[in-house]
Amino acid sequence: MLLTEKRNNPSDRFEYIYEQGGTDKLTIIVDKMTGVNYLLTNTGITPLLNADGSIVTTQLEGTW
Length: 64
Prior knowledge:
The chain is mostly beta strands. It has a domain at 5-47. It is built from no helices and 4 strands. A 4-stranded antiparallel β-sheet has the order 1-2-3-4, with no helix packed on it. A hairpin with a 2-residue loop joins strand 3 (37-41) and strand 4. It is flat.
């Protein structure tokens, strides 16, 4: 499910963009300073990777 703007405070460095699951929740967040996408799980955090092994990034609008 896509997350609503209510969870994202404009002054927060990380933006929550996707979430799925119940007990074993998976969440994708974007670092608004670098554009790097991360996967959050119950056991930790890791950057998301493309098929070629490069880090998934989001094009940023403006500056943080």
